[in-house]
Amino acid sequence: MSDDRMRGDKLLCEVFKSSRKEGLYLYVDKRQGLVDVSEPLLEQFGKPLPAMTLILTPDKTLGRAKAADIMAAIREKGYYLQMPPAKDDYLLDLYNMPTQARY
Question: Which helix or strand (DSSP H or E) is residue 70 part of?
Answer without folding.
Answer: helix 67-77
